[in-house]
């Protein structure tokens, strides 16, 4: 592996070595492995369901989006509730929103994630739990019944929706937004020349944990340009006092074409009111869009 100029990171421990991709698949291309800080992960977020043991990793993968809760809360204060959280997971946004007094409908396809969300809310108290409603559904088959002032597709969840299904999802959400309501979404934008030059990438990083477990990850990112898709495989090693657990996880995503997405939003009756870009590295950036209904 090589380390980018100016980046100093600890040496990967020996216990991590058996989890390298070569033990599961082919050896990564020479020079393709880059060790990176966990707060600058370049588009490695997972949009797949995770078990309880992978929560720390899932949160770390959202590092480039970690400040989005502040922006989304600020937007909610301007729109008011109810709030629709699409692809809510275990409540990373839904529960804090409820703590701030917003009624939230959390939608996710993973029943265990919604159970963790409900358990978290109950532990906080009945006032928070009473503001949360969960709805198990796949975003490609979403049918809503309520009306909302704000809808969220946060944590790059829009990349989990196949392009063929995305227009229908956007129309469904837009049709349930109240007048003056907003849809906010974020995604990782990849520069096309970078994808062409390096469609296979390998990253190594340590997951920040505070429970006594030492966790290292090698992530293999493979882009398929003809289908505009990507697959990320995470090879993890979690070392405690007595043993090391090795887990392999995968997530499949779709590469977002900004022009196509803008056209789909327009067709759904939404216009892009605000756009914020945050550079992650020299070929990747996080994009946050705020869209309003066409009144």
UniProtKB/TrEMBL annotation:
Positions of the Methyltransferase domain: 83-181
Residues of the signal peptide: none
Stored Pfam families: Methyltransf_25 (PF13649)
GO MF annotation, one: methyltransferase activity
SUPFAM superfamilies: S-adenosyl-L-methionine-dependent methyltransferases
Protein name, as recorded: Methyltransferase domain-containing protein
Protein species of origin: Streptomyces venezuelae
